[in-house]
Automatic annotation (TrEMBL):
Biological processes annotated in GO: fatty acid beta-oxidation
This protein's UniProt keywords: Fatty acid metabolism, Lipid metabolism, Lyase
InterPro entries: ClpP/crotonase-like_dom_sf (IPR029045), Enoyl-CoA_hyd/isom_CS (IPR018376), Enoyl-CoA_hydra/iso (IPR001753), Enoyl-CoA_hydra_C (IPR014748)
CDD domains: crotonase-like
Annotated family: Belongs to the enoyl-CoA hydratase/isomerase family.
Molecular function, one GO term: enoyl-CoA hydratase activity
Signal sequence extent: none
Protein name: Probable enoyl-CoA hydratase, mitochondrial
Organism: Lentinula guzmanii
Top-level EC class: lyase
GO cellular component: mitochondrion
EC numbers on record: 4.2.1.17
Length: 286
């Protein structure tokens, strides 16, 4: 993966100088991380892999700082259209790092707003696809829920086991689950800590689908999204997410205004002209 990334980087280096998107590509590739891996499976997709295998990708503060940096670098890179976030076969992430948390006091966590930076993923403008295999528990489940689309392999197990530790979800699980699967099922997960299989999560509408080769499928989906007009992709993400927060009437008004706004783009002219002329659209993201 890295050698492929390196190949893209060196190819890019040869053609660099005048192209800002290529320069930021190099920045993404050249950052050294300890707890995550970053690569570019193809020029338009960033792949971020959580990499603390011995701790089942427990989400420590240093890991999260690296993750946020990699995510925001990818978000700022104009060559990238979508981001895939994954873990290992055994664990997407087994939650916040319990060993890091166990001795903390209320005054520390409250004063220092412990783990507040977890929410930053939801500020990204580009789509993020979670490719989940193995355990996605506690903060790991919440991290998947913060992504825009979840694909799961048949081995995936989702759960909010915080109740077994004497706490509750703190990274948005109790709220996002209510939206995703309804109150009764969310309540069951939060109060029992039970893990659900990929198949059950699929039936519940918590994920998009169960698939073998989940990372490849996620990259394929990210590549397809990247081939669309990026202004429309960004707008699509924005309006769907607004559905979480607005009333139906406000949401419909916001969607209509955003739809109208896209008529100011070259991509709308190109997309509709290409349809009428029976050819493939060449979007310029402008
Ligand atoms: N934190 C730290 N270390 C962990 C974690 C974790 N969450 N999960 C696993 N590990 C470590 C184990 O301690 C073990 O390390 P070692 O080899 O040094 O003993 C190693 O990973 C392997 O784990 P196991 O031996 O336990 O592996 P098993 O295959 O037997 O079990 C399980 C796998 C079932 C996943 C088990 O490890 C487990 O139950 N893990 C804890 C799951 C959990 O409770 N997660 C919730 C954590 S709390 C949380 O996420 C709150 C989020 C709040 C966010 C707030 C944002 C503002």
């Amino acid at each position: 993966m890295f050698s492929r990334a390196f190949q893209i980087t060196t190819t890019a280096l040869r053609t660099v100088s005048r192209k800002p998107s290529v320069i930021s590509t190099i920045r993404l590739m050249s950052t050294q991380y300890e707890h995550i891996l970053t690569s570019r499976p193809n020029p338009s997709v960033a792949l971020i892999t959580l990499n603390r295998p011995k701790a089942l990708n427990a989400l420590s503060t240093p890991l999260f700082l690296e993750l946020n940096k990699a995510l925001f670098d990818a978000d700022a890179d104009q060559g990238i259209g979508a981001i895939v976030l994954t873990g290992s076969d055994k664990a997407f992430a087994a939650g916040a790092d319990i060993k890091e948390m166990k001795d903390k006091e209320f005054s520390d966590v409250y004063k220092n707003n412990f783990l507040a930076n977890w929410g930053e993923l939801s500020r990204l403008r580009k789509p993020v696809i979670a490719a989940v295999s193995g355990y996605a528990l506690g903060g790991g489940c919440e991290l998947a829920l913060m992504c825009d689309i979840i694909l799961a392999s048949p081995t995936a197990k989702f759960g909010q086991p915080e109740i077994n530790l004497g706490v509750i979800p703190g990274g948005g699980g109790s709220q996002r689950l209510v939206h995703a699967i309804g109150k009764s099922r969310a309540m069951e997960l939060v109060l029992t800590g039970r893990m659900v299989s990929a198949q059950e999560a699929d039936q519940w509408g918590m994920i998009s689908r169960v698939t073998d080769n989940v990372v490849e499928e996620a990259i394929k989906m990210a590549t397809e999204i990247s081939s669309k007009g990026q202004l429309a992709v960004q707008a699509g993400k924005e309006v769907v997410n607004a559905g979480y927060e607005l009333t139906l009437a406000e949401g419909l008004r916001f969607e209509r205004r955003t739809f109208h706004g896209l008529f100011a783009t070259k991509d709308q002219k190109e997309g509709m002209a290409a349809f009428a002329e029976k050819r493939k659209a060449e979007f310029t993201h402008s």
